[in-house]
Write a structure and sequence with these properties.
Length: 499
């Protein structure tokens, strides 16, 4: 089906932040009922462009037309009125409210006298979901539903508010494969109702499945527009990173030895983890695979004592260590780069430099305990270069960096510590292809220095491409173990789902 009616025309939009030209003359046209992909490296300007469209940011220059009419969108309310709904990387539902309350947020219907018409509202929402073939528990706060359900509710809320254009900024990053299917299904339904979807994702396979056309952005500029059926992944990557990217996975220079660096026995958190025991060797990258919810993150949190009630034994280099808090874990040489960078990994209002130096003040403090700012800066500059962290200045607040660049800071934060065991939980979530390759290389380098590396990942190609050995978890237990060179996607999945 060829769509020919432009719903959205963005013309020559520019936007600067102090020290950054985030967008320069960017133009984009989207047609009725299409699913348009928007891709680019971390910091390319994708989210900024969408925030301008929705009214969260104002543009410096440019014009936006919706259904042929010029619109002036100065704030999110105006964006909504113009028919734009955006689902951001971070969800924005009110967790204590039910789906009905969330869908009617800010515009509860009242009878004369101010009584809220709950029954009528609920009925409307029920009918609406029925028309979409979806079913949610409308009686509980959405905080009790799964992330995937919240995501679907968030999307349907945009539809409910009559959005003609729905922007999804990395909607699949925390969904399981089945949940992704449900999402894609919903997207198709919305398209058939004439709704236009703009889909931002770093998972290129998904774009090829869900979208027809793609815009590539690079360094705040347009860098190409393609029909996806005409191109392959390599063409897309070349447009995105501006060079050929031959090896997604690094050459393995690490060799696992017999020496056990980390051993854990009978880890149990009383909830999601039940008697998990395993070893990691010097020079080894141990992959943890399994479905979302299998208890992998919880196992790591238990080892790190981020979960105070967790039980179990932890041995480092053969010695049992007592870990009562994350601070103990760090002292014993365990680093944990968490999957949830916004809540656990970073302090968003602090600078890039402070965040990088945070896990190891010893190396940048003088004897009296004062931070040596010159040293801190030098350290931060080093990691900025090594990881290609896109920021004009290491004194910039981390919260102002693009999502993927924030993730690089999380990893950098742990790199300067004296660590024996590195735990990476979904280290490449939201990271562009070029930066992914850099992070893989980094893990191999860390292991090659004789350290133990654990990588929790839901991306099977990544688990297979980077690990030496793979443990698979299901329902809080380890259900399989494979050497990476003997494993394939099918063998991992069969352990993960219990075939
Ligand atoms: N509120 C802000 N203040 C200052 N700079 C900002 C702000 N928001 C974005 N930027 C900068 O604008 C540039 C574009 O960022 P943007 O978030 O649009 O990238 P992105 O393409 O969405 O990247 P990612 O794939 O990592 O999410 C980056 O250099 C970023 O640091
Ligand atoms: Mg973004």
């Amino acid at each position: 089906m060829e769509n020919t009616i432009p719903v959205l025309e963005i013309k020559n939009v520019s936007k600067s932040f102090p020290g950054v030209k985030a967008l320069q003359n960017v133009s984009l046209t989207a047609y009725k009922g299409e699913c348009l992909a928007l891709i680019g490296e971390n910091g390319a300007g994708k989210s900024t462009l969408m925030k301008i469209l929705s009214g969260a940011y104002s543009m410096d220059e440019g014009e936006i037309y919706i259904e042929g009419k010029k619109v002036n969108i100065h704030n999110p309310a105006e964006g909504q009125k113009a028919g734009v709904g955006v689902i951001y990387q971070e969800l924005s539902l009110v967790r204590q409210f039910t789906a009905v309350e969330n869908l009617f947020l800010g515009r509860w219907e009242t009878a004369p006298g101010g009584v809220v018409k709950w029954k009528e509202m609920k009925k409307q929402v029920e009918d609406f979901y029925k028309s979409l073939g979806l079913h949610f528990n409308l009686n509980v706060p959405v905080g009790r539903l799964s992330v995937a359900q919240c995501q679907l509710i968030e999307i349907t809320r945009a539809v409910f508010m009559n959005s003609k254009i729905i922007v999804m900024d990395e909607p699949t990053s925390s969904l399981t494969n089945t949940e992704v299917e449900i999402l894609f299904d919903l997207m198709k339904r919305l398209q058939s109702q004439g709704i236009t979807i703009i889909f931002i994702s770093h998972k290129l396979e998904e774009l090829f499945r869900a979208c027809e056309r793609v815009y590539v952005m690079k360094d705040g500029c347009n860098a190409g527009e393609f029909q996806l059926r005409d191109i392959n992944k390599d063409t897309l990557v070349r447009a995105m990173v501006g060079r050929e990217l031959k090896n997604y996975y690094p050459r393995k220079t690490n060799t696992p030895s017999d020496k056990v660096v980390l051993e854990v026995k009978d880890v149990d958190d009383g909830k999601m983890v039940h008697g998990v025991s395993f070893q990691v060797h010097a020079g080894e990258i141990l992959g943890f695979s399994g479905l979302v919810g299998a208890g992998r993150t919880e196992t790591m949190r238990a080892i790190f004592k981020a979960e105070p009630k967790a039980k179990g034994h932890v041995y480092i280099d053969g010695q049992e260590v007592s870990i009562k808090s994350p601070a103990d874990a760090i002292r014993h040489g365990i680093a944990f780069a968490t999957e949830d960078r916004r809540y656990e990994g970073l302090v968003l209002p602090l600078s890039v430099a402070h965040n990088i130096s945070m896990a190891n003040f010893d190396s940048i403090c003088n004897k009296a305990g004062f931070i040596n700012l010159r040293k801190e800066r030098a350290l931060a500059e080093k990691y900025k270069d090594n990881f290609n962290i896109r920021t004009p200045d290491v004194n910039k607040k981390v919260g102002e960096l693009s999502g993927g660049n924030q993730q690089k800071v999380v990893v950098a934060k742990w790199m300067n510590t004296n660590v024996r065991v590195f735990i990476f939980d979904e280290p490449t979530r939201g990271i562009d292809v070029g930066a992914k390759a850099e992070i893989y290389q980094l893990m191999v380098d860390i292991a090659a220095q004789g350290n133990a590396v654990i990588m929790v990942s839901s991306e099977l190609p990544e688990v297979l491409g980077v690990s030496d050995r793979i443990l698979i978890m299901r329902e809080g237990k380890i259900t399989g173990e494979l050497l990476a060179h003997e494993a394939d996607e099918e063998s991992i999945i069969s352990f993960a789902i219990g075939g």
